[in-house]
Amino acid sequence: MSNLEILELDPADGDLVSGAFEVLRASHAADHPDNPAPHEGKFAKGLIHPTPGEEEHTFIAVKDGTVVGIAEIGLPMRENLHFGWASIHVRPDRRRQGAGAALLDHFIAFTRGRGRTELTLDTLMTWEDGVARDKAGQEFLEKRGFKLALTSINRRCAVDALDADTEQRLLEKAQSAAGDDYEIVSWLGRTPEELVETMARIDSTILAEVPLGDLDLQPETIDAELKNAKADRNEAMGVIPIQTVARHRASGEVVANTAVFAYDDTEYEDAFQGITIVDKEHRGHRLGLLLKLVNLRLVRENFPQVRAIWTDNADVNAPMIDINVMLGYEIVDAMGEYQIKFAE
Ligand SMILES: CC(C)(COP(=O)(O)OP(=O)(O)OC[C@H]1O[C@@H](n2cnc3c(N)ncnc32)[C@H](O)[C@@H]1OP(=O)(O)O)[C@@H](O)C(=O)NCCC(=O)NCCS
Predict the structure, then answer these.
(1) N or C: where does the chain have the smaller number of CB atoms within 10 Å of the terminal CB?
(2) pLDDT higher than 90, residue 204
(3) Which of 96, 106, 121, 147 for a ligand 1 pocket mutation test, highest count of atoms within 8 Å of Cβ?
């Protein structure tokens, strides 16, 4: 492609932002329409409000005035300074013309120029009896020497997957297993001020607990300031957390946490399961199942437009998958995280 240009997307340039979003919209429609659609408002606002603790750059490939591809790049700035990730999409009607390769070259040069040595890119893959996915992304990455480092399975659960009696029975079973040692607290939106410190503590354990495959990632330390900055970003993007935690009565600490994220958009029918984590010392009391069921009810009550919740779990995360299957989650596809490492 001779006259292909790679530019950094200026969030204030409405035409280019729309063109970039169109790449994501058309890719979703062509490649995986059964997954949640990208949301234009969230995309545009996310450009103006990057993820706290990360440097984010969005590059676009433009040909003859049309945005034909996009590379969304993230560089962690607090920990994992060796790391850089990206997600690349090319308009379905402009594929096999070199735009993807040009964006990939740019990603590698850009992140290597910032001293990053471990780079990752993701692509959807077929998983078991889920929906078949095109192999273009895998072929594209493997050709350039990237290796599959982590596979996460995407599952979908209708918000009314369980009949009311079954759901109630499961809830009661989980409540009696949890006993009286824990206070269950739920909220929508920002974490209540008095819980921010203890929530930051449990959030900091996430990367150490979640299976990461061959990714060489160190746990992040999440403090109250970072938590508040993330909450500001969610508010700015119209993303509403629905959160339920277990507070250990004896210590006052939050020892288990689950969150679902919905969009502030009455037309948007999907919501996203975030992390669920139970502190090591408090496992075995069905807290994970209990919190998820309480949170599911909150989603239904507060977001009647939401029809399904989506989750992704590392293929080796058996305990979490067992809970999800019990709740009615079904396999859709998988996300492959491909990695390449460079010498310093
Ligand atoms: C993967 C993707 C970004 C490739 O974009 P593209 O502009 O078509 O890629 P290029 O034209 O630069 O292809 C570069 C090379 O990748 C390989 N490749 C790309 N698409 C392929 C396909 N469908 N089948 C086999 N090999 C393919 C080829 O080796 C190709 O070189 P060639 O055309 O000289 O044979 C595009 O298909 C896409 O947007 N897919 C959906 C999103 C996705 O999976 N992204 C993940 C990759 S980061």
Answers:
(1) C
(2) no
(3) 96
CA distances from 32 to 25, 38, 124, 155, 342 (A): 10, 11, 9, 14, 32
Q: How far apart (Å, rounded) are the C-alpha atoms in residues 193 and 231?
A: 12
Cα 207 vs. chain centroid, distance in angstroms?
14
- The pick from 125, 140, 340 for probing ligand 1's pocket by mutation, whose C-beta has the most ligand atoms within 8 angstroms, reads 140
Question: Residues with Cβ within 6 A of ligand 1?
Answer: 27, 31, 88-90, 95-101, 121, 123, 136-137, 139-141, 143
- Cβ 59 vs Cβ 70: under 8 Å: yes
Single-letter amino acid, residue 30: A
Question: How crowded is residue 263: how many other Cβ atoms within 10 Å of its Cβ?
Answer: 22
Please report, for residues 153, 155, 275, the alpha-carbon distance to residue 326 in angstroms, rounded to integers and kept in the order given. Answer: 16, 12, 17
Helix or strand or coil: residue 203?
A: helix
Please give the domain boundaries of the chain with CATH numbers for all domains: 4-116 (3.40.630.30), 156-330 (3.40.630.30)
pLDDT of residue 320: 81
Q: Atom 28 in ligand 1: which residue has the minimum CA distance?
A: 140
Atom 9 in ligand 1: which residue has the minimum CA distance? 100
Is residue 270 within 8 A of residue 308, CB to CB? The reply is yes
Choose the weakest-confidence range: 16-20, 46-50, 127-131, 198-202: 198-202
Rounded to 5°, angle at Cα 92 from 90 and 96: 70
Q: How far apart are CA 279 and CA 181, in angstroms?
A: 14
pLDDT band at 207 (very low <50, low <70, confident <90, very high): low
Residue 95 CA: nearest ligand 1 atom is 8
pLDDT, average across residues 205-210: 71
Q: pLDDT at position 293, please?
A: 97
